[in-house]
Amino acid sequence: MTPILTCEHLTKTYGIFCALDDVSFTIEPGKIVGLLGENGAGKSTLLKILAGMLTKTSGSAQIAGNEPGVLTKSYVSYLPDKSYLQEWMKLSDLFTLFSGFFADFDLQKAQGMAKDLGLSEKARLKAMSKGMQEKVHLILTMSRRAKLYLLDEPIGGVDPAARDYILDTILTNFSEDASILISTHMIADVEQILDEAIFLKQGKLILHAPVDELRETHHQSVDALFREVYRS
Ligand SMILES: Nc1ncnc2c1ncn2[C@@H]1O[C@H](COP(=O)(O)OP(=O)(O)OP(=O)(O)O)[C@@H](O)[C@H]1O
């Protein structure tokens, strides 16, 4: 099977500081992969490069055979760590914007998710709480029929009940040959939906394995393993 994502010796430096150090891995279609690591490990840097928002220093990244750029943006759905949406916009405005911008945006799906999550389409972003705004970003990102979803800390501010709905939605609504790379510190919550985990430490990839294999080998949850690996 052709990988949806291939990174080879991917490196990013900011001045003399190396934020991503010789990172190589592949992700097959249909996989949900957790991108895990302590603060400053390089998770957002990696996702930004893959989303075409940041240029690499060296190495390569290929998404369905193409370097991150204009073409890959048509089939990569990215949820960044900081909001890029205009606060005065209503949810309905955002749906119109995304429908016009992305050919793969499924308006019905977005409207259904908004209803299930108790969001009014008439509400403006600036009138929403942090958690509600996070839900909006997730709805917009997950309502695209993309090949690869890049989610940077998507559920940090969302309440536990909504978190379950969102994880469920991620599981049931993305197509079989799409993949998700999800950066999160909420490992215990997200672990149940992960197929694989990648551990980043100080810019280096220190582990990439199926979560079942990790649990079997280490006789503990991925959350517990993470705490052990990153204990300072
Ligand atoms: N524009 C920048 N200029 C200089 N250094 C940067 C820049 N962006 C990120 N860094 C540094 O690169 C490293 C990796 O940052 P990154 O945001 O990728 O980490 P992260 O794993 O996403 O962290 P967190 O979990 O805290 O969000 C950090 O040490 C950060 O200070």
Automatic annotation (TrEMBL):
Keyword terms, alphabetized: ATP-binding, Nucleotide-binding, Transport
Protein known as: ABC transporter ATP-binding protein
Positions of the ABC transporter domain: 5-227
Alphabetized InterPro entries for the sequence: AAA+_ATPase (IPR003593), ABC_transporter-like_ATP-bd (IPR003439), ABC_Transporter_VariousFunc (IPR051782), P-loop_NTPase (IPR027417)
GO molecular function: ATP binding; ATP hydrolysis activity
SUPFAM superfamilies in the cross-refs: P-loop containing nucleoside triphosphate hydrolases
Upper taxonomic lineage: Bacteria, Bacillati, Bacillota, Clostridia, Eubacteriales
Organism: Merdimmobilis hominis
